[in-house]
Write a structure and sequence with these properties.
40% helix; 22% strand; binds flavin-adenine dinucleotide; 7-stranded mixed beta sheet; alpha/beta; 19 strands; binds ligand 8RB; 449 residues; FAD/NAD(P)-binding domain
């Protein structure tokens, strides 16, 4: 098994396959982060939820990762006017998400892959593939190198070289849906006493309608802040807020409480690049037994549900399960395993891609809105009244492992029930419970798992 990319999915899949007895080689373009430090430098964090945590559990890595994680109990919403407040994600501290460092996670996964017997090759970026002769060409510091392979697994991220090679060899339908919003990262350092400057156990959101800031805690007492806003168009957009001075003025007006939290705002803003965001769709994720794609290489998504890594880890579990033990290395079996993996995961990836787009509107606009908050209240009440039948959207995506496609289908029905039952109302006391209960019973069957 030749895995291209030693990022999050590549390193986890290498561990799982090596444990199954496969001979695994991982080729990573960058240097070894355990030797050279994690490329990208600054502390960048990710939200880990149940799907990702479960995958780590299967690899025996959950304890090691959680040791360095910061618990996030809910959304801490900072309105422009009014009091900041916590909206819990779940019922109690068993339903939380975890902020973890990408660099530390990647190192934990690479160590595990090596311990399981995988061979890691750093400084080797895939350049081109001869699928007929089964030769892969890599860029190295000493020039190009050709290596034979049996099968290639592309875990090389949203800009996947393996996917490009596949598209060149056997073009298939593809679609990149660019979001017209981008992002920029900023930082909240520790306070003078070395502690967190704001509530550590939350995912902070400053919703502002068409744009927003979020902040996730790091265990070294900093927060990584991400500003999301339109790339072009009328102010505010990245086209109109161009330098540190304009950023200061913008934040003074729209995020006044963050000014004292982000002392280097002007410098961070001027120095850090504007990131672009896209959803990528590919008709085929595999080429018979010769190649398969996982994670962002197969289905990059926008970040607003915090599920990119979680979904990529689910891909790894699914692919490893379909492939099975290392002694079944016949091309026919492998091609079947790849096809079964693709059939299982494609509808689910499409579902979370769509839900991620929808969650941007919720985060930037609705978390602050009275009608939405009433719907959320009703959602929690219905969870109590119809336990196992009415399960909140966020809970299905974040705290359960039911297929994303099932979560999407049920969320659509539930949203209709919530909107219908709260239309024109200002409090739960006015709800027509007989009618809502009947709608729940008629339209939702009990969910297992
Ligand atoms: P990656 O982790 O990107 O790994 C790809 C690897 O392939 C890299 O190591 C790269 O160097 C290597 N590579 C690339 N090209 C080649 C080549 N030609 N040859 C060899 N190697 C190559 N997801 C969440 O679930 N929760 C979050 O909160 C969250 N926050 C995020 C925050 C940021 C700033 C970003 C950018 C993403 C976030 N994501 C989050 C998404 C998550 O990072 C990705 O979905 C996840 O990393 C996908 O894993 P992957 O292995 O497919 O890709
Ligand atoms: N990629 C997240 C959520 C959902 C939070 C909620 C949202 C930053 C890039 Cl934007 C975002 C979530 O509904 O209350 N859970 O986890 C992570 C998020 O952004 C990450 C940090 C991010 N991802 C390029 C930037």
């Amino acid at each position: 098994m030749t895995i291209i990319g030693g990022g999050l999915a590549g390193a986890l899949l290498a561990t799982l396959l090596a444990k199954e007895g496969w001979q695994v080689d991982v080729f990573e373009r960058r240097g070894d982060p355990r030797v050279e430090g994690y490329a990208g430098g600054r502390s960048i964090n990710l939200a880990l939820a149940e799907r990702g945590l479960h995958a780590l559990r299967l690899a025996g890595l959950d304890d090691a990762v959680l040791k360095q994680a910061v618990m996030m109990r809910g959304r801490y919403v900072h309105p422009l006017v009014g009091t900041p407040h916590l909206q819990r994600y779940g019922r109690d501290d068993s339903e939380v998400i975890w902020s973890i460092s990408r660099g530390e996670l990647n190192i934990t996964l690479l160590d595990a892959a090596e311990r399981a017997g995988a061979r890691l090759h750093f400084g080797m970026g895939l350049d081109a593939v001869d699928f007929e002769g089964r030769i892969a060409t890599f860029d190295t510091s000493e020039g190009k190198r050709d290596l034979p392979f049996h099968t290639l697994i592309g875990a090389d991220g949203a800009g996947s070289s393996l996917r490009q090679a596949l598209q060149a060899y056997r073009p298939c339908e593809e679609r990149t849906e660019w979001l017209d919003h981008g992002y920029k990262e900023l930082e909240i350092p520790p306070d003078a006493a070395g502690g967190f400057r704001i509530e550590p156990n939350a995912l902070h959101i400053w919703p502002r309608g068409h744009y927003m800031c979020i902040a996730l805690p790091n265990d070294e007492r900093t927060f990584t802040v991400t500003l999301f806003m339109p790339l072009e168009g009328e102010s505010p957009s990245f086209a109109t807020i161009r330098d540190g001075e304009q950023a200061l003025e913008f934040f003074r007006r729209d995020f006044p409480d963050t000014l004292e939290l982000i002392p280097d705002l002007a410098e961070d803003y001027a120095r850090n690049p504007v990131g672009k965001l896209a959803t990528q769709h590919y008709r085929h994720w595999h080429l018979d037994a010769r190649a398969a794609l996982i994670g962002d290489a197969a289905h990059a998504m926008v970040p607003f549900h915090g599920q990119g890594m979680n979904c990529a880890f689910e891909d790894c579990i699914a692919l490893a399960a379909h492939i099975g033990h290392g002694h079944l290395a016949h091309d026919r079996d492998l091609a079947e395993a790849y096809a079964a993996y693709e059939a299982e995961r494609k509808p689910n990836a499409a579902a979370i891609q769509q839900m991620a787009l929808e969650n941007y509107i919720e985060m930037r606009d609705k978390v602050d809105d009275a009608a939405f908050l009433l719907q959320r209240e009703l959602e929690l009440a219905l969870q109590e009244r119809h336990s196992g039948r009415f399960v909140p959207h966020y809970t299905m995506v974040t705290f359960m492992r039911i297929p994303y496609a099932v979560a999407l289908e049920r969320s659509d029905i539930q949203r209709e029930i919530l909107v219908e039952a709260t239309r024109g109302l200002t409090s739960l006391a006015q709800v027509n419970w007989d009618k809502v209960d009947a709608a729940v019973m008629a339209r939702l069957h009990p969910l297992s798992g």
